[in-house]
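#structure-requests
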Amino acid sequence: MPGHDDEFADEGTEIDVDALVLIVVGAHPKAEMFDRTIAYRLRQRMIGWLDQRFPTGGPRPLLPLVCSDVWYLNDQSLRERPAVAVGGPGVNALSAYLADKLPSAFVIDDVLMVQMDLEQHQNIACCWGLSPSDTSSAVDVFTDRYLDAFMRSSLGQEAA
């Protein structure tokens, strides 16, 4: 439920799927070891973005949630939500799926890549690098350059 961090939710709390912004990591040991930590850092940046724009302490209109690629790819309602895949095609099935479907927004050859539709026809992005530190750098690039437009699009707003 928007406005409440998962550490305050109880098991009976319903999740409003329509409010989710998903950060998808692979269900692979390397993804769990490295990419999930990076994904939670991105989640905190998204929450910070929301808190700057909705500072009243009331419910946030979006709920950033980290989930696995298995859950995401097997649930149609989740595939309709804005999402950022974290981790490369070798460890994240969503990244593998998106590899030839999303344009590159930012690339450092043989190091890292941020893929997304800059015109926001699809509110989905993919951030990955050749090493965990490169993936972390790709997420930093996404956050610094594209997070505002991505979040505005997730809210149904035009980028200012």
